[in-house]
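Researcher: Go.
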Amino acid sequence: MVTLYFFFTNPVTRLGVLICMIKRMYQLGLLSSIIFLSAGIGMWFVGRRCTWLYSIGIGLGVLSYLTLLLGILGIMERWVYLLIMGILIIFTRRELWEFGQYIYTRIKGIKEFKINAFNLILISLFGMSVILNLIGAFTPEVHYDALEYHFGAPGEFLKDGKIHFLQHNVYSNFPSLVEMLYLLGMLIEGDTLAKLFHWAFGILTGVTIFSFGKRLFSTKVGLVGMVVFYIFGQITILSTQALIDMGLAFYSFLGLMAIIEWIETKDRKWFLLSGISMGLAVGCKYPALLSFLAIEIFILFQKRLKSAILFALLVLLTSSPWFIKNFIWTRNPVYPLFYNIFDGKNWDKVKDERFYKAHAPGKKDPVTLVRTLVDMTFKDQFMTPLFLLLIPLGIFLKDMSKPIRYLLIYLALFYLFWFYWTHRIDRFFLPAIPAMALVSGYIYVRLAEAKILEKPLSIILIFSLLFNLYISAFTLSSINPFAYAFGFETRDEFLVRTLPPYPAMKFINENLDEDAVVLLIGEAEIHYIKRAVLYNTVFDTSIIEEVVNTSTSPEEVYEKIRDLGATHLLLNYVEVARLNRTYSYMKDFNWDLLYGFEKKYLEKLYSLEDKVLVYKVK
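Model: Structure:
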C-alpha cells in the first residue's frame, strides 16, 4: 500500500517506474528478437519443413554452440556478437520473412478460436501465471546453484575474457547449452536478459504441449494440457531462476513428441527432429539420458535396431561439442562421470566417491518405489495431486489414443529410470511433466464427454489450477519480486534482503582494489563478486584445506596463501556449517591452525554478524 501511495502521489516515483518499464520492454524486445532470429536459423539449417517450435529450439542450439566456439577462441566482445547476429539476419532473411508471415497468419486465426467461459478461464489463468513468472524472472538471481555455476561459470569466463577449464568448479564442465545462452545474454545486455531465457523455455514448453495436443487430438486437449503444465508450482519457481531445467524439459519433450510422430507417420523428418532435439537436451544436462533411453526403447519395440543405432548416433553427433571439449581439457568426455573408465584431470577416487555418494539413489525396494511416487505427488510443495488423480482415471477410457499410450509408457519408464538412477530430487523429474500434463488434458477431455461428469470435472480442474496459482504466488512472494521488477527498489537493496552473504560481496566490490584476489572459504556463490576469486565447489579440491592441512605453522600457511596470490579472504561460517552437515565439507580441518594464522597475518575488514567475514592478508 505504501508503494502504491508513493506511485500515485510522487511524480519522481512515477517517472522512475516509467523508466523501469521502458527498460523491461527493451529487455523483452531483445529476448523476442533472439527467439525470432533462432526460428530463422533453425529453418535455414534443417529446411522449411521444420515446424516453428523445432526451428526455435534448433536455432537457440546453434546460437549456444556459436557462443561456445567464440568463447573458446577468446572472442568475448559485445560488438562481435551483435555483428554476427546481424549477419545471421541477412543469411536467414527469407526464413525470417516466412516465419513472420506464419506468425501473422496465426494471430489472424485467433478470431476463429471459440472462447467459451471455460476456455476464457483457462487462458486468463495462463496469462496471469506468465506475468507472475515474468515478474519473478526480472529479479536478480539468488539461487545457490545459479550463482555457483549456471551464472557463476559464464561470469568467470567474462572476467577472464575466454572460456577455459575451471579447475575448482567441476560443474562448469557439465554440458552447458543453456549456460552459453546465459553468456550470450550477459554479453548483449546483462543478467536480466540471460535469466529471461529460462523463463522463455517455460513458455515454449507450454506452447509445445498446446501445439501437439491440438495437432493430435483437439484444441481443448492442448489448452488444458498447456495450462495444467504451466500453472504448476515447480514451473513458477524454475521459470524465475537461472537454472537449466526448463531448457531440458523443452528439448526432451520436443524429442519425445517427434519420435511419436515418426512412429505414427513414418516420416523421416520427425526422426531427424527427434534426434537433434534429444542431442540438444543432452547438451543441457546429463540426466537427459533418461529421456533418451526411454525413446530408444520405443524404437527397439518397433523392431528397428538400425534405427535405434542411427538415433543414438544422431543424438551423439548433436551433443558432441560438449564431449569433445571435455575430452580435450580433461581426457574424460563425460567429465566427471565414469572416473573408473576415463580418469580425468583434477579428479581422483576420493572426489569421485564423494560425488557418487551425494548423487546416489536411496532405497530401491518396491515399497519405496510406490511411496516415493505418492510422496512426490501429495507432499512435494511444487507438485500437484492433479496428475495422480487424473491419469489413473484413464483406465476407464475405451479406445485410448496410441500417442497417449506411448506417453504413458514413457512416463512409466522415466519414473523407473529417475527412481533407480538419480538421487530423486524433483527438478530431475521435470522432463516428464509436459507428458503428464498432455495426458492429463486428454483424459480430462475424454471423461468430460460424459455430460454427467463435465461440470464436476471442470470445477475440480479450475479449483486445482487456482490453488496451484495461489501456491506459486505465495512461494514467489517470499522474495517480494514486485518492488524490484517495477523500479521501487534498487538491485543492491533487493540482494541485501534476499541473499545473506551479499553485503560482504558488496563490501568487496566497493572497497577492495581492482587487482585484489579473494580466497573464498565455504563460499562458492561467485557471480556477484567483481574481483578475481580463488574458490572451489564442495566436490572439488578444497583450497583452504589443502593449504592448512599440509602446513605445520601459521607462517607456513601464510607463505602458501601468498604463493596462491590471495590478497584477501572471505570466510562464510554459515555455508561451512551447511556444507559440513550435508557433504562432510572441511570435516577434518585444522581450525586451530587457521585461527593462529588469522591472529598473526589477517586484518579483519568487514564482519556480517560474525557469520561472514572479509580479511586482508598482511
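Model: The mean pLDDT is 91.
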